[in-house]
């Protein structure tokens, strides 16, 4: 169990993770992007205190985030997801999960 220190008053912290390594086919990567776009499009988020992060990973881990933004810019996030590249290298799942955890620790 992970213990959180202090008080967290964020309404929502959402971390989207997509694997763009070589073990994922181009078609499956495109489907993953479509799922993320569909999910974000359907969300009705109260913009205050929302934190959204997107992690695209293969050998390297790339973080796109809107930490501390008081207006959730859905259009910017959807545009960024649509433009994600299929990197097609090795898979750094451990580094990705460590980054996601660090994001959560910074937020709360």
From TrEMBL:
Ranges of residues in domain VWFA: 13-99
Organism: Rotaria sordida
Organism superkingdom: Eukaryota
Pfam families: VWA (PF00092)
Descriptive protein name: VWFA domain-containing protein
InterPro entries in UniProt: ECM_Assembly_Org (IPR050525), VWF_A (IPR002035), vWFA_dom_sf (IPR036465)
